[in-house]
Amino acid sequence: MLLLIPGPVTTHPDVRAALAQDLAPWDNDFRAVCARVLDKLLHIAGGSADEHAVLPLQGCGHFATEAAIRTFVRRDGRLLVPMTGSYARRMVRLAQEAGRAVVELPVPLNEKVDLQAVAAALAADPAITHLACVYSETSTGIVQDAMALGVVARQAGRRLLIDAVSAFGALPFDIAAMPELDAAVFTANKCLEGVPGISFAVAPAERLKAASGQAESWSLDLADIHQHALRQGRGSFRFTPPAQAIAALDVALDLYAKEGRAARLARYTANMGAFYDGVRAIGLVPYLPADVQGPIIVNVRAPTDPAWNLQAFVDALKRRSVLISNFFDTPEPSFRVGCIGQVTPHDMQRAVDAMVEALDEIGVRSRRAA
Ligand SMILES: *Cc1c(COP(=O)(O)O)cnc(C)c1O
Description:
- The protein is α/β, with parallel strands linked by helices.
- Helix content is 40%, strand content 16%.
- The protein has twelve helices and twelve strands.
- The strands form three sheets. Strands 2-8-7-6-5-3-4 form a seven-stranded mixed β-sheet, sandwiched between helices.
- α4 links the parallel β3 (78-83) and β4 (101-106).
- α3 (61-72) packs across α4, α5 runs parallel beside α6 (146-155) and α10 (261-281) packs parallel to α12 (345-362).
- The model has no long low-confidence stretch (mean pLDDT 97).
- Pyridoxal-5'-phosphate (PLP) binds next to α3.
- Pyridoxal-5'-phosphate binds at residues 6-7, 60-62, 87, 134, 136, 138, 163, 165-166, 187.
């Protein structure tokens, strides 16, 4: 089965093989594996061991996003969130349910965030402590300029939180060049090509120290995770970690080092290009114009043909060994296809060919979108 969802992704056989073992998470040998994984991640993030820390957190990306918000935004703090799509909306909900105040900045879904509008919103409300943005908006496929947004936050004297879940490992990122950053969050199972179960935040050590005790949660307190690592040794966990997922990530990160970030991004970009051009060639309409289309995920507008039915389409594709998301996250009906994981432009073309057959099978005659 060709897994073309925007995470979890198609993994390398060696990554899957690492899952087939019993592990003792509290054992010193396994602690060394965890420490090694954190070292590799810190290296990818551009961090240095004396200034930055990678904090592992059991669970999926939303957990890490909530943890970053709780840890760094105090109860009396306030977040500015450019509303780039449904993952920005999720950030808002995570913040609000944690009792943190949010200011939403409207953004057209098919456009880059207007940096001047962000600067103006920060200037207009001195109570805003943090700018929080989604680097790669998986709901549409647009990639925002996280570095430029960071500069805007820096110039306004505010802190930055980045949801880098579908970006980290492929898109450029360098914590050493972002002194305004409080945290960027990511998971094992997207561009790092591991399996789900573990998420991470990378943050400055000084900020973690200063954030002690403000998370109003023990499980989701990144500062406490940091303190624990300082006390008990890096690679030790407070609570049971998904040991197999971490062992698999260790292997995935070796494969990552062999490929290199630039080559991985180039491969994803080629995947996206093959798929984007491929669906256009068969008369389907991508959600985003080419100039803002990111390399991670392509959303395609649903055909207006009355025979269109997303689940039927997904099922027909599955019969052809291609698996895509059976939900969409855009206001207009669409379907989403991931370009990440152990897949190639050849696989993406195969997916396009399967889509021609699947549309015929479910009776969609016109592929035009509204
Ligand atoms: C995948 C993703 C998340 C996290 O999703 P989980 O299901 O919680 O792992 C968050 N933000 C973005 C942009 C994502 O693509």
